[in-house]
Write a structure and sequence with these properties.
By secondary structure, this protein is mainly alpha-helical. It has helices at residues 2-27, 38-49, 59-75, 77-88, 122-139, 143-156, 163-188; strands spanning 96-97, 103-107, 114-118. The protein has a three-stranded antiparallel sheet with strand order 1-2-3, with no helix packed on it.
Length: 189
Amino acid sequence: MIVQVVLWILAIVVISAALAVCITAIRFRTSALALLAALPVIVGLVGLAFRSGVPAPSTAVAVVAGILLALLGIIGGSPVTMAVLGFSRRGSVPSVDGEHGGIVVSEGTAPEIRRAEVLRGGTIIGYLERLALIAAIVLGHVEIVVVLIAIKGLGRFSELDSPEIRERFIIGTLVSLIWAGACALLIVL
């Protein structure tokens, strides 16, 4: 029983630290730092894979851990997604993050190059999509995930006119949903 309590307290501390790392990464725009937050998620998933789960010592402890994992899934998805997007564009034409959560792309040819921000609101949409995905999985209504992806794709369809934008949209959406799904999986299992 003591080992069980210690492991759960350790898990709560590590998840809280990962959440603090993600908030710091968002605040200081150092998304690579957020990859440290993946450690408790990876360890949790490996534990699930090997069926080495430790039952919670009480419902309250399980609820606290679940809430922290949900917050990590929602908040941590943003810097993790930005880190993966940063890795995906290494060696290619750099894109600039916009003021409104989108990306700034160049349009036209020299000397009339115009810069425009596309996929505006992507950061807020990301938080909302991760919240919806985690809620859907925790509530046992995974069909909501299909609706979520359809709404996002249809809503952004008119903005997906260049290869760079399509690439960022697909990579960003997949990373965001995989991250939130992994956190939700740890909550329900």
